[in-house]
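#help-structures

NK: newbie question. if I give both the sequence and a SMILES, will the prediction place the ligand too? trying with pyridoxal-5'-phosphate
OV: yes, paste both and it writes out the complex. here, I ran yours:
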Amino acid sequence: MKIPQFKSFVDKQDYSSLEKVFENNYIAEGPYAKKFHDQLLDIIGAKYGCFASNGTLAIYLGLKALGIKPGDEILVQNITFIASANAVEMLGATPIFVDIPSFNDLTIDITKIKLNPNTKALIIAHLFGTSCSNIEEVKSYCDENGIFLIEDSAQALAISNSEKHCGTYGKFGTFSFYADKTITTAEGGFVVTDDEVLYEKMLYLRNQGRLKSGSFVHPEIGYNFRITDLQGALGLSQLSKLEKIKITKKNISELYKKYLGNNVTYLSIRDDFNYIPFRVVVFVNDAEKMLNYMVENGIESRSMFYPLHKQPCYKYLKHSDMNYPNSLECYNKGICLPTWIGITEKEIMYVSDILLKGLKLK
Ligand SMILES: Cc1ncc(COP(=O)(O)O)c(C=O)c1O
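OV: that's the protein plus ligand as structure tokens.
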């Protein structure tokens, strides 16, 4: 049996949504993008939102609008996708990596933070379709210490508790619509905020330093981070399937739990937030060995994120392994299992069976 690590959930309905845009003969950011924007804000519950070309540029856009500049230091969760760090680096600022509290709890351990006058913001990541475990605590910490809280919610669209949605605790929150995200527009990003001034600033920055396209007068220096109406229409079509995506993905995680039982350790998940697994994550003693064994058996799984402090490209920051024991354990043990709409129970059983055999339990 061959099981891919991921398949995008795009279907005929998505395909026909694109036809409508071509019929409209308006393919740049326009009415469909506006409707997609409105529906996203309804789901997220933020006051303002704007698109960026992708989730990485969404983080960059927010940071740039906040005035982050060379010399500033930004705290970044050490286990996350590299985009947070890269967005900081694009601004000429410095990412400072902070360890996680334990190997299966993917958030910033605030007890490990060392502040200095250059520390301007903290980027928390809500990973794998759940909220980070300590968002309230991180928010209070940022407020008390006068630094901005930024939430990378690329993997956390439609993740909320009875009070708040991920991405709405901090100064701004960002989302990604890359092909493997909860909903996709192939590429695409979104920034939300309740701060009107910050929002206005972002509108200028994302559209060549002007508010309206078509004008050649540019009050500010800006860039082009716009999306297309093809993405807008695709996003709307994807959103119409959100309930199905939620139920199906939750079901996949329950099936893995059913077949793997207590033989593996799971990601720590808050039960007051809903959960739409981006990937089902499990922890075993030797992830590398297990990943090789799975590949030998036709299963394409993924490792955990490589700790940012170990990234060859950030070697110049000279972070030492000594400060990141939990990140290292997380990487050495973590495996992301195939979690995509369309995977069958039989395939989940097969993956689980191979995993258990790999553990020498079968
Ligand atoms: C946690 C996280 N942050 C940021 C990004 C960056 O998003 P994009 O690929 O749209 O730039 C991704 C996804 O790829 C991600 O998973």
